[in-house]
From TrEMBL, chain A:
SMART domains: WD40
Protein name per the record: GNB1L protein
Gene: Gnb1l
Residue stretches in coiled coil: none
Biological source species: Psilopogon haemacephalus
Keywords, sorted A to Z: Repeat, WD repeat
InterPro entries: WD40/YVTN_repeat-like_dom_sf, WD40_repeat_dom_sf, WD40_rpt
Positions annotated as WD repeat: 200-241, 287-329
UniProtKB/TrEMBL annotation, chain B:
Compartments where located: Cytoplasm; Membrane; Nucleus
Gene, per the UniProt record: Telo2
Telomere length regulation protein conserved domain: residues covered: 314-422
Native organism taxonomy: Eukaryota, Metazoa, Chordata, Craniata, Vertebrata
Record's protein name: Telomere length regulation protein TEL2 homolog
UniProt record similarity statement: Belongs to the TEL2 family.
Keyword Transcription regulation found: no
Keyword DNA damage on entry: no
Length: 329, 641
């Protein structure tokens, strides 16, 4: 007899706008407080204290334009946020400060979230959609120098890049970029050469979100249709479709794989969060709390597995926090 | 019968006389079933036998020619055999021509399709005879297209003529069609108009098939006429007549083959385009990594609530009404339409407040988006409103039936809804939840939306059967009922009782008043037919109500005024009305209050049984006469018959 799905552990209210992006920063030791960053449509980035479950600070750096990406760079004092004002801002939040230290003007009016990768101490690579329609530009931070510009070949008709993921197999090896495009294909780019290594048509509709498991070199992408596509990368750096999974309702806004690679969560347009086992895509749970489309899901990075949380931000202005499948090693 | 071949001239005329006499006496079958195959066999090989056969037939006296020819038509194995046997008899002999081109085709209709095939094939096989084929076709089309012929000839004759037309078409060659193309077109247009105007679906279908076939023949390039109708055995049989399978047929088969090849070539070309070069091949899902299956430790939660997301319908009736009248949101509109019936039934008090308005909205509701089963959903909602608040809604609907500016579909909808609601009201405990009502007596189920008149005919027939049997088994029934306890069926008050009159009388009131857009007695005889059938059903359902006698009297008068209507569907309806009256009104009331009407009706029924061209009408009239006989037997009190 299957148990009914669990309720959220708690729900964060107070953003008073649709929540587009979430990022946990809970890895620190005591007395560091676990923090959740959320970006909303009204341009604010809220810093939630997960102990008191209240907003500690609200950062206003994008001129009331929707913030659709927040990431931390190394520690919770260094924050990166991307907004619809075509800017990526770097924040310094140490010791109570709330200042924007640097910003990058992307000239891109799309919704593609940027991707970050730490390549060395203090050096980051950031991939973002750039001014031209199909291009992805990779910058090095904090120097903001351009590493390369990835242009698909003429006539490829990929459309806008919709989602990006930077990764490298191990520290020091060449970084690679997975990009999901508007025409439904996922392309693997080699950054040092600036060339596409492989292209795979995963969906008939735009790829809304993707995530990649380094260890198994397997990835998953979700789109506006009813299908999730799981693909893998073989030794020749070639992408192949592994399997597909059909959903009950169409539309996925976000997919994320938990850091321990056991489960993954999808945020759906049908207001539901779905949990699957990553190994075999076994459906595990359907979390039905929100009353509007869920825009983002994120897993926390607690060092204690039992404390791990899942957060989901939705158009109904709520952030639901769940504790699910974390009762084992 | 052996002939001596002596080289001398034999006189065959004696044999012809014998043959003629035998055939006229009715012994065609026995004689010709032996003679004709033998002759056919012999004449295939030998020309002399052919000529002898021709001579034989030419010498048959005129008065016996018809019988002989019919016999030959029926027993000949095929058109080419017939051609060898008859030769050009039809051209040389006037009587033979009359029989073959006029009598068999236009005046008789009892013959099988094989006879038609033989006859028309025979006409097509010789250049001397082909002009006759064209004339025959033109005459057939004239008869087919004449509306008076259609009204007065039975269905079987119309089928016969249609078959003959189709076979003729299959034999004609291009140049011949060219020469009479214009006439074919004119006759087709006229004929199709009369056929589509008919109320009987089979006649409409016949018209459609023939018109399609003619249009295919005369329009070799460009799109041909195409109608929509149900395919069944009859249709398939008719269509098969268009294609001649005999080798010496005139229809060229080469263009057909070319067409088939082209059609086969196209799909294969489009298939190869569809393979997209960039789609990667699928790897087989590897189930083999089951060594460390830590997924098994993850127990899934209950996901049974996970269903397709749909827009929620409003929960209140007035909200529904708002959505239906003004809402632009198509999803919401769809959800409302689907949920409406159950809302109406769950909230009778709320429904009664807004019943007339809701009925108005539903009557005018048009399909906004492609909802499955929209017509049925709307009808069920209307029935629900009507049964919840019968009197005001019935008054509204019946008044709208006779108002200006409604489409025929809407008027017929009103009638259907009245019938279904009456059925629901009169059979207690059958809530509209189940589509079928379990009637305590005949257990025939009515599917809303289907052609109700056929089903009701069945129900009435069953009722009649059960009534006529009752007299025979009356004694045995008495014994049974005395001996055993009866099983109690669940019963409730008959709700139709109080409202039957409101359903019935307004419908019958204004039928003879024509409006600018609606003339029951004129063009809109289809609606008249449906109205009459509806009245029959309402009458039937009004059994055991207080108003039944008044209703019966009014209905018999109504029937009397319309009894000579030219449309057979209407007449069938009128006869059903009479059946319903005879079944529903208690016998005492019938005999006391309606004696004159009954007598008049009886004499009319007798007339119908003998003279009506339509087979169904005759059968119904006969049933009614039987019912009347039973009435008389029931009450042996005075009734001058």
């Amino acid at each position: 007899m299957a148990l009914p799905p669990p309720d959220p552990q708690f729900v964060l209210r107070g953003t008073s706008a649709a929540v587009h992006t979430l990022h946990f920063s809970c890895g620190g030791q005591e007395p560091d407080i676990p923090i959740l960053f959320s970006g909303s449509e009204n341009g604010f980035i809220h810093v939630w204290n997960l102990k008191t479950r209240r907003v500690d600070t609200a950062l206003d750096g994008h001129g009331r334009n929707s913030v659709y990406c927040v990431e931390t760079m190394g520690s919770k004092d260094r924050l990166l946020s991307q907004g619809r004002d075509q800017r990526i801002c770097l924040w310094d939040l140490a010791e109570g400060r709330m200042s924007v230290t640097d910003s990058v003007f992307t000239e891109n009016v799309g919704f593609c979230r940027c991707a970050l990768l730490k390549v060395a101490q203090g050096r980051w690579l950031m991939a973002m959609a750039s001014k031209a329609l199909e291009e992805v530009q990779v910058l090095e931070l904090p120097s903001k120098t351009s590493v390369c510009t990835l242009k698909p070949e003429v006539g490829a008709k990929l459309g806008m890049p919709m989602c990006l993921k930077l990764w490298q197999l191990s520290c020091g090896s060449q970084p690679l970029l997975l990009a999901g495009y508007e025409d439904g294909s996922v392309v693997l780019w080699n950054l040092s050469m600036g060339k596409a290594l492989s292209q795979l048509v995963c969906h008939q509709e735009p790829v809304m979100s993707l995530d990649f498991d380094l260890e198994k070199t397997k990835g998953i992408s979700g789109s506006s249709e009813k299908v999730l596509s799981i693909w893998s990368l073989n030794e020749q750096q070639h992408l192949q479709v592994y399997r597909t999974h059909k959903l009950v309702n169409a539309g996925i806004s976000d997919i994320t794989i938990r850091p321990d690679k056991k489960i993954l969560a999808t945020a759906g347009w049908d207001h539901r969060i779905r949990i699957f086992g990553w190994k075999k895509m076994k459906p595990l749970a359907v979390l039905d709390y929100h009353t509007a489309t869920v825009h983002c899901v994120s897993f926390s990075d607690h060092s204690q597995p039992s404390e791990r949380l899942l957060a989901a931000g939705s158009k109904d202005h709520r952030i639901s926090i769940w504790s699910i499948y974390n009762t084992q090693t | 019968v052996c002939f001596t071949l002596g080289g001398s001239d034999c006189s065959i005329s004696f044999v012809s006389h014998v043959l003629g006499k035998v055939c006229v006496r009715g012994r065609q079958k026995e004689m010709l079933s032996v003679l004709v195959p033998g002759l056919a066999e012999l004449s295939r090989a030998d020309c002399i036998w052919q000529r002898m056969c021709w001579r034989l037939l030419e010498c048959v006296p005129e008065r016996w020619m018809e019988a002989v020819l019919l016999g030959f038509l029926q027993t000949a194995p095929g058109a080419d055999d017939l051609s060898r046997l008859l030769g050009n008899l039809v051209v040389k002999n006037k009587k033979a021509q009359f029989v073959l081109t006029q009598k068999v085709l236009l005046l008789q209709y009892c013959h099988k399709t094989a006879v038609l095939q033989n006859l028309l094939g025979y006409l097509s096989l010789d250049p001397l005879r082909r002009p006759l084929l064209v004339t025959v076709l033109q005459e057939l089309l004239e008869t087919w297209g004449s509306s008076s012929a259609m009204r007065h000839s039975p269905l079987e004759q119309q089928q016969y003529i249609s078959k003959a037309i189709l076979i003729c078409l299959s034999h004609l060659k291009e140049p011949e069609i060219e020469s009479c193309r214009q006439e074919l077109l004119t006759s087709m247009m006229e004929g199709v108009k009369c056929h589509l105007d008919s109320n009987l679906p089979r006649i409409r279908r016949l018209g459609m098939i023939v018109a399609e076939s003619i249009s295919v023949k005369i329009n070799t390039e460009g799109p041909a006429l195409k109608f929509q109708y149900e395919e069944d055995d009859e249709v398939r049989e008719l269509k098969s007549l268009l294609v001649q399978t005999t080798p010496c047929s005139a229809v060229p088969s080469l263009p057909d083959e070319e067409e088939n090849e082209e059609a086969a070539g196209l799909p294969s070309a489009s298939d190869s385009d569809q393979k997209s070069p960039t789609a990667a091949p699928l790897l087989p899902a590897e189930d083999s990594d089951s060594e460390l299956d830590s997924d098994d430790d993850l127990i899934p939660y209950d996901m049974s609530e996970d269903k397709e997301l749909g827009t929620k319908a409003p929960l209140y009736l007035r909200d529904c009404m708002e959505v239906l009248t003004g809402c632009e949101d198509v999803d919401k509109w769809e959800a409302t339409v689907k949920a409406l019936e159950s809302l109406i039934r769950k909230n009778p008090a709320a429904t009664r407040e807004v019943s007339v308005e809701l009925a108005k909205i539903l009557l005018h509701l048009e399909e906004k988006s492609c909802v499955e089963g929209f017509v049925e959903l709307r009808q069920r909602a209307q029935v629900a409103v009507l049964t919840t608040d019968p009197i005001p809604v019935a008054q509204y609907l019946t008044s709208q039936f006779y108002s200006l500016n409604y489409s025929l579909r809407q008027r017929v909808d009103i009638l259907d809804v009245l019938v279904l609601a009456a059925q629901e009201l009169s059979y207690p405990n059958s809530h509209g939840k189940t589509k079928h009502s379990v009637a305590p007596k005949p257990g025939i189920q009515l599917l809303p939306g289907s052609d109700s008149s056929k089903d009701w005919r069945r129900i009435v027939d069953e009722r009649i059967k059960s009534k006529t049997r009752r007299i025979a088994t009356l004694v045995s029934r008495l014994c049974v009922s005395l001996g055993q306890a009866q099983v109690e069926l669940p019963s409730g008050p008959n709700e139709f009782n109080s409202v039957a009159g409101h359903f019935f009388f307004p419908l019958i009131q204004h039928f003879d008043r024509p409006l600018t857009t609606f003339d029951l007695l004129g063009e809109d005889h289809f609606v008249l037919g449906r109205l009459v059938h509806t009245l029959a059903v309402l009458m039937y359902l009004a059994v055991n109500t207080l108003a039944v006698t008044a209703m019966g009297k009014a209905l018999l008068e109504f029937v009397w005024t319309l009894r000579f209507h030219t449309d057979s569907y209407v007449r069938q309806g009128l006869l059903s009305c009479v059946s319903s009256v005879l079944l529903s009104v208690p016998a005492e009331h019938l005999l006391e209050d309606m004696t004159e009407e009954l007598l008049e009706t009886q004499s009319w029924l007798g007339d119908v049984v003998e003279k009506d061209p339509d087979g169904d009408c005759r059968r119904l009239a006969l049933q009614n006469l039987l019912l009347m006989e039973n009435l008389k037997k029931k009450l042996p009190l005075s009734l001058p018959s």
